[in-house]
Design brief:
The chain is α+β, with helices and mostly antiparallel strands. It is 35% helix and 22% strand. The mean pLDDT is 94.
Length: 473
């Protein structure tokens, strides 16, 4: 119970404006991005590492459960409180002052509350950017906690690959600060400790600052919609593109016809780019890019892409049925609108899955055949990062026929889909969204006991206090 004694002590640490207590203001921190509702005892809003440390130390000593929250854009209930009303949210939203750019090292030191859009917005006048491309606009601390990937993972990798250093506050009675803020890219002096905290949902410690790798901003970009001849031809198409384009290929995003049609129907600002308005069964958004301005002696990037597509088209057993090069901004606008369009199609039950690249479409095809006999009133609206084996496997329930989606129905549906994804296809139940309360049962079910024991030991070693929404035991 968070009584007045605790509130008084926390106000002494943060000041009166550092606590959120009234129900109207609490709602923004209690409600998640999708169907996620909790109840917080209060919200703490520290302004920097020192205040995070003091808050954490106090809460650990007083046995108060803490839920770290960054941008609150996650989809697995990892950053919101449960319904007990006993958990305290520690928000990073005021932690934004640090913005230290090192052009020569191609890195930036920022506070964990800094938004992705703020980083790239302030870098636009230069030649660098942080290369994690997302439909949402998270804060950096949450991106590290979940090891975010994104649409250009194929070329740039995930957050783990692009993090050079971190500063962490541990959930122990001292609120110990661990400073790992090195800007080094090579350092083989032992364990790379920062990796212990990336992708572990904030349970091992709270990221308060970080040093991020920056990449050269693309100065030339060309995009195309590709229609594979069949679903099984997608991997042949990807191999052909990689063989001919190498590091120029920066994205290879798959979009099902159902997902595209739902988005065009529910997002009226979009233009249907397909001939006669006929949406293909499956479309690939391919992007190629260069980080330098056009040169007089080189082939324009659009011409490079068109030449490659012509070669693929003319090859024996060509995997390509149709293709057209178009404006990058317009093509990406459709891709980034898919989440919103699918969400508006009906009651959404979303899965963030990953597989070996060869199994992504095999899984989706298997599901299209088998799902109707198990869940007749559920329709698949899938899209994802084919180039790195990820798929947003979205299921929309026709509630008019099936009735409202209750907890028991959603649990049966999730149990079945995850059993196929993990047991039959050897995939992961969480490609890049993290674990969170929504995936806790599947972490418990599918994680090997030895791995769980190691994680529980590390959790006890780093942050024995009640930190985060995930139990790694």
């Amino acid at each position: 119970m968070i009584d007045e004694r605790h509130k008084t002590a926390l106000v002494e640490i943060l000041g009166a404006d550092g606590l959120v207590q009234d129900s109207a203001s609490l709602a923004a921190y209690e409600n998640g991005a999708r169907y996620d509702r909790g109840s917080a005892a209060l919200v703490l809003r520290p302004r920097g590492t020192a205040e995070v440390s003091a808050c954490v130390a106090y809460c650990v000593r007083e046995h108060i459960a803490l839920i770290p929250q960054s941008g609150n854009t996650g989809l697995v209930s990892g950053s919101t409180p449960d319904n007990s009303g006993a958990q305290v949210v520690l928000s990073l939203d005021r932690m934004t002052p640090i913005f230290d750019l090192d052009i020569d090292n191609r890195s930036i030191h920022v506070d964990a509350g800094t938004r992705l859009s703020d980083i790239n917005g302030r870098l636009e006048s230069g030649s660098l950017f942080f290369p994690i491309d997302l439909g949402a606009d998270p804060r950096v601390g949450g991106m590290l906690a979940t090891n975010t990937g994104g649409s250009r993972f194929l070329k740039y990798g995930d957050v783990r690959r692009n993090t050079l250093g971190v500063k962490i506050v541990l959930a122990d009675e001292a609120g110990t600060v661990v400073d790992l803020l090195s800007g080094l890219r090579k350092n083989n002096t032992g364990v790379d400790w920062k990796q212990l905290f990336i992708g572990t949902a904030g349970a091992f410690g709270i990221v308060t600052e970080c040093v991020l790798n920056l990449e050269r901003l693309p100065r030339q970009v060309s995009t195309a919609y590709l229609v594979p001849r069949t679903g099984t031809a997608v991997m042949s198409l990807l191999r052909a593109m990689e063989e001919r384009l190498g590091s120029y290929l920066s994205a290879f995003e798959g979009m099902s016809g159902n997902a595209i049609a739902a988005t065009l129907a529910h997002v009226p600002s979009l233009r249907n780019p397909f001939q006669n308005g006929d949406v293909p069964n499956y479309v690939i958004l391919a992007e190629v890019s260069r980080s330098w301005l056009p040169r007089d002696d080189e082939q324009p990037l659009d011409a490079v892409l068109e030449t490659v597509l012509a070669e693929v088209w003319e090859a024996e057993g060509a995997p390509l049925a149709n293709a057209f090069v178009g404006p990058a901004r317009e093509m990406w606008t459709l891709r980034h609108a898919l989440s919103e369009g699918v969400k508006r199609a009906g009651r959404l039950v979303a899965f963030d899955l990953s597989f070996r690249r060869t199994d992504v479409l095999a899984f989706c095809d298997w599901m299209k055949l088998e799902l109707p006999s198990h869940f007749a009133d559920v329709v698949i609206f899938d899209f994802g990062h084919i180039g790195d084996g990820g798929v947003h496997f979205n299921l929309v329930v026709d509630e008019a026929r099936a009735g409202p989606v209750d907890i028991a129905f959603e649990r049966r549906l999730r149990d079945w889909v995850y059993s196929i994804a993990v047991d039959r296809f050897g995939g992961s139940f969480s490609a890049e969204h993290g674990v969170g309360r929504k995936n806790q049962a599947y972490y418990d079910l599918y994680t090997q006991k030895k791995h769980k024991d190691l994680a529980a030991g590390l959790k006890q070693l780093t942050s024995p206090g009640r930190l985060g929404s995930v139990c790694f035991g």
